[in-house]
């Protein structure tokens, strides 16, 4: 039988999915890839060895379904996060994208709305629409910050079922003061999700929204092992919230959604949290080096508490992106006029990016 080819329009697709584009950051095999905010440092050998032992052990029982409640892993996350959290306040999934999807499946869905302050993480609208809910965009100030009063007023006016607060924000790197979280929570009727995917790259003495969890049963703080833990390929994300909210997520997850191998690998990695996180300081140093160097090249970086830098002053982002690509450096054109975003790499990768940008800078 021949292969049938056609377009999506020929399929009985859900009406609300027509015209949508999937997530599609380029995955190109270039020497220097700084486009999706990965940790460009590999897992340290001593940790990799321990993970391999844990995987070998788990493999012996892989004929059985895994622990549906991923008990050991939740205990590991509770211990790592501190703040007096216990395992019944923790949930996990295959990347924080899945954890966010569980939240939307539970609290959004057809006839409901989710809200975020644009520009923000591009998956929020896609995940929202995937559940049949409607995405509502709020606004930021021109420097991409948001203030407590303004944020609360926007949320009260939109009255969404779910609010996303990305802290620090992707793609801008902007810090989010805890007073904004508290004000938005008061103004919101629905679930408030603080996405702390990049929290480990913030200044050490800054408080996490985890500190606000007590007495806020609609507040959720999500995290990921993809960034600071250099574990993007393993797909492990997690969240902390009230035990009742965690219980609700069981309604939508697939049974045994976290494989025994994922649980074993992540639990082993968490036992070495200090070593896994040892590269964070080095990445922060490279991020700050990028921010300190860009003005001399004629670009305007924004304050970043993450592992990437957004910079403005780019005359023709598509042309600069292509020129960097042609010299073997992949960064991200996030579709913001006059802006590009780059992930902080190793020292050598960061040097390659800065040198390549210096040579194309005048052409921009
Ligand atoms: N939240 C934010 C703000 C992100 O930037 C990302 C990944 N780029 C994620 C969540 C999802 O990460 P993962 O699914 O790998 O945990």
Any key phrases for this structure?
single chain, 364 residues, alpha/beta, Aspartate Aminotransferase, domain 1, Aspartate Aminotransferase, domain 2, three-stranded antiparallel β-sheet, 12 strands, globular, binds 4'-deoxy-4'-aminopyridoxal-5'-phosphate
What can be said about this structure in brief?
The chain has 364 residues and is α/β, with parallel strands linked by helices. The chain folds into two domains: 97 residues, Aspartate Aminotransferase, domain 1; 227 residues, Type I PLP-dependent aspartate aminotransferase-like (Major domain) (Aspartate Aminotransferase, domain 2, 3-Layer(aba) Sandwich), CATH 3.40.640.
Write up what this structure looks like.
With 364 residues, the protein is α/β, with parallel strands linked by helices. Helix content is 35%, strand content 14%. The chain contains twelve helices and twelve strands. A seven-stranded mixed β-sheet has the order 2-8-7-6-5-3-4, with helices on both faces. The chain has a three-stranded antiparallel β-sheet with strand order 9-10-12, covered by helices on one side. Strands 1-11 form a two-stranded parallel ribbon. Strand 9 (300-301) and strand 10 (308-312) form a beta hairpin. Helix 1 runs antiparallel to helix 8 (260-271). 4'-deoxy-4'-aminopyridoxal-5'-phosphate binds next to helix 3.
């Amino acid at each position: 039988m021949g292969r049938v080819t056609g377009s999506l329009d020929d399929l009985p697709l859900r009406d609300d999915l027509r015209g949508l584009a999937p997530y599609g950051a380029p995955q190109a095999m270039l020497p220097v890839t700084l486009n999706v905010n990965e940790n460009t440092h590999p897992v340290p050998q001593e940790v990799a060895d321990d993970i391999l032992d844990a995987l070998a052990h788990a493999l012996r029982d892989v004929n059985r379904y895994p622990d549906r409640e991923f008990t050991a892993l939740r205990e590991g996350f509770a211990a790592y996060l501190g703040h007096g959290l216990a395992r019944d306040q923790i949930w996990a999934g295959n990347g924080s994208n899945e954890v966010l999807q569980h939240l939307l499946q539970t609290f959004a869905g057809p006839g409901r709305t989710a809200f975020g302050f644009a520009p923000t993480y591009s998956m929020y609208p896609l995940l929202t629409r995937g559940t049949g809910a409607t995405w509502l965009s709020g606004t930021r100030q021109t420097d991409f910050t948001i203030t407590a009063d303004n944020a609360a007023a926007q949320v009260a006016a939109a009255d969404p079922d779910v609010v996303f607060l990305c802290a620090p924000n992707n793609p801008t790197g902007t810090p989010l003061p805890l007073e904004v979280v508290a004000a938005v929570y008061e103004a919101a009727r629905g679930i408030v999700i603080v996405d702390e995917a990049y929290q480990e790259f913030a200044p050490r003495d800054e408080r996490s929204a985890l500190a606000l969890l007590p007495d806020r049963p609609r507040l959720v703080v999500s995290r990921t092992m993809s960034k600071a833990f250099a574990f993007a390929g393993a797909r492990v994300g997690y969240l902390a919230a009230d035990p009742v909210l965690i219980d609700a997520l069981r309604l939508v997850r697939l049974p045994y959604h976290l494989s025994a191998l994922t649980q074993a690998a992540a639990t082993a990695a968490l036992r070495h949290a200090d070593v896994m996180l040892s590269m964070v300081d080095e990445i922060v140093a490279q991020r700050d080096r990028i921010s300190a160097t860009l003005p001399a090249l004629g670009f305007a970086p924004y304050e970043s508490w993450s592992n990437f830098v957004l910079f403005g002053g780019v005359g023709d982002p598509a042309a600069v992106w292509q020129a960097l690509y042609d010299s073997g450096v992949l960064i991200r054109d996030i579709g913001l006029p006059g802006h590009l975003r780059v992930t902080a790499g190793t020292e050598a990768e960061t040097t390659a990016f800065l040198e390549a940008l210096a040579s194309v800078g005048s052409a921009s």
